[in-house]
Amino acid sequence: MYDETLRDQKEVVLCEDGTNTLYSKEFDEPYHSTKDGALHESLEKHVKPSFSLKSNQDTLTILDICFGLGYNTFATLYYIKKHNLTTKVHILSPEFDEGLVRSLSTFNFPPEFESIQYIIEAISQNLRYEDEQFKIEILLGDARESIPKVKEKIDIVYQDAFSPAHNPLLWTYEWFRDVRAICKEDAILTTYSTAAAIRLGLYENGFYIFVHRAEMMRYSTVASLQMLEELEYIDMELKKVRNSEARSMKDREYLKDMHS
Ligand SMILES: C[S@@+](CC[C@H](N)C(=O)[O-])C[C@H]1O[C@@H](n2cnc3c(N)ncnc32)[C@H](O)[C@@H]1O
Question: N or C, which terminus of the chain has less Cβ within 10 Å?
């Protein structure tokens, strides 16, 4: 599916919110929606809904899939600092592009990340960071191999891989089964994908599905292992009746790409 020789070929792209992202030639896709904006998308689709649903917890373990430019992780730290939260956060983030992570100390991030530049530099250099409040670890390598080995139990999953069309093995039923296996019983998952196939893959693994709406943003999906009263619920059984063709994605349909 992807050509690793293209891994180092990336171009900086300016998003409509004024923040920078990259375009990946390997995946033929930008790292963020240039319309929604890198920082805006991280905050609105992942960080804010997650922290609003988990505001009662003193400690949170977050799975950030995948690290990329680190916007979701850095936006989480920015949000916590901005709101003077005392939440202790442990972030685990798979990523197989070591060169990208190591280059982040010189990436032109938005001014919002200035106060955490020392954390960006530490991660760029050591692939991890730890202080009394934050622990961030990059799980270097293929996420399909690293996720089943994770020992921590996860509260929040930011499912932010490249699109299902371009990176299918991080969106299949089996992928979500592996993610679910390391989740706490009340874990939530946030994703930009609203596709029926993706929602079905989550639903078949025990997640309830909800619509998430934010201002100046296309709607997105929140999935939860427990029923949530505060969000707009989607009845997936009804969706299956109305869209009888819809199927979750399966590893076997894409595994040939994994080995090509
Ligand atoms: C859309 S980008 C993630 C954007 C990121 N969340 C951010 O905020 O900058 C997807 C990332 O997944 C990584 N990736 C793709 N397939 C992977 C795999 N099987 N294992 C680990 N990382 C993978 C890519 O190298 C890329 O950095």
Answer: C
Sorted by sequence, the CB contacts under 8 Å of residue 100 that are 6+ apart come out as 10, 68, 69
Using the mean position of ligand 1's atoms as its centre, give its distance from the Cα of residue 242 in Å.
33
Q: Tens digits of per-residue pLDDT, 87-136? A: 999 999 999 999 999 999 999 999 999 999 999 999 999 999 999 999 99
Residue nearest to atom 4 of ligand 1 (CA): 68
Binning the chain into helix, strand and coil, the percentages to the nearest 5 are: 40, 25, 35
The reported pTM is 0.95
Give the C-alpha separation, 212 to 200, whole Å. Answer: 17
Report cis status (omega within 30 of 0) of the bond before 66.
yes
Q: How far is the CA of 191 from the centre of ligand 1 (A)?
A: 13
Question: Which residue's structure tokens are 């040939």?
Answer: 256
Sort residue 206 into left (φ over 0), alpha (ψ -120 to 50) or beta.
left
Distance (Å, whole) CA 147 – CA 201: 17
